[in-house]
Automatic annotation (TrEMBL):
GO molecular function: DNA binding; DNA-binding transcription factor activity; pyridoxal phosphate binding; transaminase activity
Protein name: Transcriptional regulator
Quaternary assembly: Homodimer.
Keyword Transcription regulation attributed: yes
Cofactor(s) the protein requires to work: pyridoxal 5'-phosphate
Similarity comment text for this entry: In the C-terminal section; belongs to the class-I pyridoxal-phosphate-dependent aminotransferase family.
One matching Pfam family: GntR
InterPro entries documented for this protein: Aminotransferase_I/II_large, HTH_trans_reg/aminotransferase, PyrdxlP-dep_Trfase, PyrdxlP-dep_Trfase_major, PyrdxlP-dep_Trfase_small, Tscrpt_reg_HTH_GntR, WH-like_DNA-bd_sf, WH_DNA-bd_sf
Ranges for domain HTH gntR-type: 11-79
Keyword list, A-Z: Aminotransferase, DNA-binding, Pyridoxal phosphate, Transcription, Transcription regulation, Transferase
Length: 500
């Protein structure tokens, strides 16, 4: 047993030992009947005196959490409901961990960890999933506020499906995306993430299978895992999801739905070809499996041609479409939308009522004004140009890493998906970069099995200003070169050779 003891803490060491063990007993990590290490061993293991351990164990006995048994040692006791002693009753701290739903307990919180790491001002984040905050159209927003100040209506409740006038504006926006829908077919959500969550809540029961591209958006994996689903990953190539592999898995698992990001896929940047889109729909029809189409990046395009979303190619009502303003406008407003077949819309409206009633009204009002006054297109053009320049800078810098880093150049979106030499340890690379103030996203978090993707990583080119981006890239590339050199030296010294 290894306990974390801090000798600089003011709390005496025996109390620290008692507290650490208490936490483990109450959280269920140490079950009833578990025998604590003998006092002498515990003392040696933690470089403390035996008296300190005896005092810690006495403390636990006084709480009724352990008992001494001759010949057996100090044993964790069965916890019984204590009798009530009125005001004198001893109240044990509540052990939360055993109470959590098992599905949630097993989901790792990689996003919070990465966001936490990126929250320091001095850290250069190539791990972000948002645009450049310096490009947020703040002055336009202020102008809107001057021209159309918020009134009590915009601070009131809105319909569950969202403000009708915003739904109208989005239906017009969708025409530019080759999809013709009425305002009634649009429902406003708290970001497209809420649509992924609602699809999981509406369609998945524990044990159900769901198909995702492999790799895919990390939070979608977390969401489906939290629903208790079996997540089946299908590899993607330059044209999108591999239909040959998909067909076999559709037959085998009979999944509840297929989750896909056809335009500037996160994390790979791949755009699904028109043939693949049609082929995917064909398979969906044949196996009667719905498609959850997530389209947060489609607008951020550096290409001439824009392919129609799957939703626009689907006359039979198999596709649930999601999109968001998080990537082009303001991620903090939390405004996204869905366009879905009628029965799905009804269930989503019910789930919206249960979750949070509606998206914040002032935010909906501001975005609606932004669209109505025609600011969106100009803003999109400006940001896309800026992101394209940054993409070029990133691609050029990585190319100079002399064949060490492999990647395809995406025609839009936010990311470059990179492969690093197999002999470089991702853990060491992450540590070396973050020691120098640079973070990125390791590839494994985008795979349903986190053991995959070890030699891949995702770099974001949109978030940082140009000079910080260049600085971050230089640190990253030097770290790759350094670790590669070290490992080839080790290979030479040990005579080991790569096994292909
Ligand atoms: C593929 C994908 N879907 C959804 C989202 C979340 O978007 P929103 O902020 O609208 O919830 C992201 C954000 O990174 C994403 O990459």
């Amino acid at each position: 047993m290894r306990l974390d003891i801090n000798r600089n803490e003011t709390l005496p060491v025996y109390m620290q030992i008692a507290n650490r063990i208490k936490e483990q007993i109450l959280s269920g990590i140490l079950p009833a009947g578990f025998v604590l290490p003998p006092e002498r061993k515990m003392a040696d293991d933690h470089a403390v005196s035996r008296t300190t351990v005896i005092r810690a164990y006495e403390e636990l006995k006084a709480l009724g959490l352990v008992a001494s048994h001759r010949g057996k040692g100090t044993v964790v006791t069965e916890r019984k409901v204590p009798e009530s002693h009125g005001n004198d009753q001893k109240v044990f701290p509540l052990s939360w961990y055993p109470l959590f739903d098992k599905k949630i307990a097993n989901v790792s919180d990689t996003v919070s960890e990465l966001m936490h790491a990126g929250n320091h001002n001095d850290v250069i984040s190539l791990a972000a999933g948002i645009g450049d905050p310096n490009l947020y159209p703040i002055s336009t927003l202020q102008q809107i506020q001057r021209e159309s100040p918020l009134e009590s209506d915009q601070l009131n409740l809105s319909p569950v499906e969202g403000l009708y006038s915003l739904r109208e504006s989005i239906s017009r926006l969708m025409t530019g995306r080759n999809l013709s829908v009425s305002a009634k077919e649009v429902m406003i959500l708290a970001g497209s993430m809420q649509g992924i969550d609602f699809a999981a809540r509406a369609l998945l029961s524990p044990g159900d299978a769901v198909i995702v591209e492999e790799p895919t958006f990390l939070q979608a994996i977390q969401c489906f895992r939290a629903a208790g689903a079996k997540i089946i990953g299908i590899p993607i190539d330059r044209e999108g999801i591999r239909l040959d592999v998909l067909e076999a898995q559709l037959a085998r698992y009979k999944p509840k739905f297929i989750y896909t990001i056809p335009a500037y896929h996160n994390p790979t940047g791949v755009v699904m070809s028109i043939e693949r889109r049609k082929g995917l729909l064909d398979l969906a029809y044949r196996y009667q499996v719905p498609i959850l189409e997530d389209d947060p990046y489609g607008d951020i395009s550096f290409a001439q041609e824009r392919l129609p979303p799957l939703k626009a190619l689907d006359p039979y009502g198999y596709v649930i479409y999601l999109s968001t303003f998080s990537k082009v406008l303001f991620p903090g407003l939390r405004i996204g939308w869905t366009i879905a077949p009628e029965p799905v819309m009804r269930k989503f409206a019910l789930l919206k009522q249960i979750a949070d009633l509606h998206v914040n009204t002032p935010g909906q009002f501001l975005v609606d004004q932004f669209l109505r006054k025609g600011y969106y297109e100009a803003h999109l053009r400006r940001t896309s140009l800026d992101y394209q320049k940054k993409r070029d800078v990133m691609a050029k810098a990585l190319t100079q890493a002399k064949g060490l880093i492999h990647f395809e150049i995406p025609d839009g979106g936010f990311y470059l998906w990179c492969r690093i030499p197999y002999q470089i340890s991702q853990k060491e690379l992450l540590a070396l970069c973050s020691d120098q103030g640079v973070i990125y996203t390791p590839g494994n978090v985008f795979y349903p099995q986190e053991s995959d993707g070890e030699h891949w990583l995702r770099l974001n080119f949109t978030y940082e200003s140009m000079d910080r981006l260049e600085r971050g890239l230089s640190i990253f590339i030097n770290a790759v070169k350094k670790l590669n050199k070290q490992s080839s030296q080790t290979d030479l010294e040990t005579g080991s050779r790569p096994i292909v």
